[in-house]
Prior knowledge:
Blueprint: E1 6-8, H1 10-16, H2 19-34, E2 44-48, E3 53-62, E4 67-76, E5 87-94, E6 101-106, H3 108-126, E7 133-137, H4 141-153, E8 158-162, H5 166-175, E9 181-183, H6 186-190, E10 195-198, E11 217-220, H7 233-238, E12 240-243, H8 246-252, H9 254-259, E13 263-266, H10 267-272, E14 283-286, H11 291-309
1,4-dihydronicotinamide adenine dinucleotide (NAI) binds near residues 115, 140 and 141.
Organism: Seriola dumerili
Protein name: Ketimine reductase mu-crystallin
Family: Belongs to the ornithine cyclodeaminase/mu-crystallin family.
Amino acid sequence: MADPPVTISEREVESLLQYRELTPRLEQALGKFSRGEVVQPVRTTVPLQKQNGFLGLMPTYIEHDGVLCTKLVCFYKREDGSTLPSTQATVVLLDPEYGSVKAVMDGEVITGMRTAAVSAISAKLLMRPEAEVLAILGTGKQALSHYNVFTEMFSFKEVRVWSRTKERAEKFMHSVTGPVTPCVSVEEAVKGADVIVTVTRCTEPVLFGQWVKPGAHVAAVGACRPNWRELDDVLMKEAVVYTDSREGATTESGDVILSGAEVFAELGDVINGTKPAHREKTTVFKSLGMGVEDAVSAELVFDQWKAKNSQP
Length: 312
Ligand SMILES: NC(=O)C1=CN([C@@H]2O[C@H](COP(=O)(O)OP(=O)(O)OC[C@H]3O[C@@H](n4cnc5c(N)ncnc54)[C@H](O)[C@@H]3O)[C@@H](O)[C@H]2O)C=CC1
Ligand SMILES: O=C([O-])C1=[NH+]CCC1
């Protein structure tokens, strides 16, 4: 009989997961995904009409590595001022041989860190080498994880942050240790920026192509439904568009579907060397989030947890 599943709390996941170990595994996973080595159907979503949200089911199987996993994630379009979280996630790791559950762990930290690390991989591959200015639109959980990994991996001379209220941008500035310039408008934040991260809950475009410096790299993380937008048509059509999953983007991304923009490549294609990284052009990485990212993160957490708990 299989051992009962272990439960790993948010605090434990936080203490076990580090970007320096997670990021290379995510890069490998993106490559495997684009080589067709991962079984990962497009996320199934169940609308929660009454609560203005969705339940997303994200199963993944990496046969070669014996990793079977699913994330359950609820995401909501919260009203301003709501104290409830906009994303709640749990990750379940299974034994593919027996079908038994090995671990049930918090998915909040995993979702925050793996999403930000994948955006950082997109910047590593697609931003210009001389990039100096980073702009972050939004000041929620993803904004913080993106700030953390981007400042850990790169040396930007300036980091700008925009939120719809000055107070939120200033609160964000005070919540981090490094220097941040709070901005009162999106235009002010992104003008001349080399890298732009969009991590908002908006459903209409907030970033317009006319403000984006030619050659900039945009990591677009919000707007994960077919009728939600963060970027306008001008930007989507002028940029070379990369995604995590072509199938996911053409099914779930309003920025891709409604603009009619062509998806040039998956990030994994660039990692595998089958498609070029057009660093010299304006690039958009449209991130939807993939089960394989959760699976490799959860496997890493579980390995670390076992190592820690087997010590005498
Ligand atoms: N691509 C991926 O893998 C993932 C994407 N997401 C998406 O990333 C986005 C951010 O997620 P969190 O940081 O967890 O959310 P959050 O609720 O913590 O932060 C959202 C931010 O967006 C701002 N915002 C809300 N409505 C807005 C509007 N109409 N215009 C401009 N700003 C607005 C809020 O003030 C806040 O700063 C969400 O859209 C979420 O669905 C979340 C997890 C993974
Ligand atoms: O990949 C993910 O976990 C999510 N993508 C959009 C909302 C949650």
